């Protein structure tokens, strides 16, 4: 529910919270001799922030690429359940669809590396995020002529709401290439949100950020989720962020699903701790966070033994 008075709902899904939105069912993906994903099954629930975590090379990006249609798994199915405003349900199998068709069904994503038009302004980049809903060409809308004008005004209103939600007012007329990295990542989040997604896929939205930028970004992801009600699937390396903002966590290791549960379940799961501590993950912050978790688990055990 939005606290500010917005005209548009940025959440493209009309499913009630708690219902299965996306079902990953027995997905396997191979590149020649490399098995990137092996028989993966999990469910993304409407209304959740669902994190996918795992050491380097575990298969996280491959999983997101299968959901968004960039990769097509050799086995298994991925199904998206959508509901019209009338409540009528449709289940779409995404597994063999191309990315643009999956985007039209309401699955939006941001990438690990920023993929914006750096010479265009923030506003123009966000308007490009609307293009899948536009009947007239983006160029005609931007040039402000003919019947495109009415349509442009409606799209512009929605884009203004995204600018307001993500507090991008001060940057709206600036070319994206001139902005700080953290702001560019926020614009990327905004562009994905402009699709009015049923499901928002975020591939390491906080990668390369300093602590302050990470905290800001985590806040905006939570706003997108809590204020706009959008279901989010998130890949993130920073364990503290994951445990703070997620409702559900799926853990991959060497292409296998080794844990799937609430943050509390996952952080005390010995297989998860083992996977991270035994990995060659270069991200020392991840290793340190898990070391702390393991110490916490041991401490809890000692205290519980002491209590008898
Ligand atoms: N296009 C590809 N061609 C060949 N192998 C690939 C391809 N994409 C991924 N892989 C392999 O699949 C495995 C999983 O990679 P993936 O990038 O999905 O892992 P990840 O968990 O996202 O890693 P990271 O945290 O480092 O981004 C790796 O062994 C990787 O080398």
TrEMBL record:
GO terms for molecular function: ATP binding; ATP hydrolysis activity. SMART domains: AAA. Residues 22-279 form the ABC transporter domain. InterPro entries: AAA+_ATPase, ABC_AA/LPS_Transport, ABC_transporter-like_ATP-bd, BCA_ABC_TP_C, P-loop_NTPase. It holds the Pfam family ABC_tran. One of its GO terms (cellular component) is plasma membrane. Coiled coil: none annotated. Keywords: ATP-binding, Nucleotide-binding, Transport. It comes from the Bacteria. This is ABC transporter ATP-binding protein. It comes from Ornithinimicrobium pratense.
């Amino acid at each position: 529910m939005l606290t500010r008075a917005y005209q548009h709902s940025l959440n493209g899904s009309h499913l009630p919270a708690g219902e299965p939105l996306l079902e990953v069912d027995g997905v396997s993906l191979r590149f020649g001799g490399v098995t990137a994903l092996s028989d993966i099954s999990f469910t993304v629930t409407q209304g959740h922030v669902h994190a996918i975590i795992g050491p380097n090379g575990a298969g996280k990006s491959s999983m997101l690429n299968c959901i968004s249609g960039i990769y097509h798994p050799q086995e298994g199915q991925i199904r998206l359940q959508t509901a019209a405003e009338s409540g009528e349900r449709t289940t779409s199998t995404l597994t063999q669809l191309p990315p643009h068709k999956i985007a039209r069904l309401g699955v939006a994503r941001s990438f690990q590396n920023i993929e914006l038009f750096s010479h265009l302004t923030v506003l123009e980049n966000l308007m490009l995020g609307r293009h899948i809903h536009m009947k007239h060409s983006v160029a005609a809308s931007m040039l402000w002529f003919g019947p495109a004008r009415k349509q442009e005004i409606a799209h512009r209103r929605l884009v203004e709401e995204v600018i307001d939600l993500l507090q991008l007012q001060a940057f709206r007329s600036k070319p994206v290439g001139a902005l700080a990295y953290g702001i560019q990542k926020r614009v990327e989040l905004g562009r994905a949100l402009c699709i009015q997604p049923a499901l928002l896929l975020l591939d390491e939205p906080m990668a390369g950020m300093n602590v302050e930028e990470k905290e800001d970004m985590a806040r905006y992801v939570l706003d997108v989720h809590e204020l706009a009600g959008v279901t989010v699937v998130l890949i993130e390396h920073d364990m503290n962020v994951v445990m703070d903002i997620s409702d559900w966590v799926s853990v991959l290791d060497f292409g296998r699903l080794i844990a799937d549960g609430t943050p509390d379940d996952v952080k005390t799961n010995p297989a998860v701790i083992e996977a991270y501590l035994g990995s060659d993950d270069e991200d020392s912050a991840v290793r340190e966070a898990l070391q702390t978790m393991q110490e916490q688990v041991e401490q809890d055990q000692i205290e519980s033994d002491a209590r008898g």
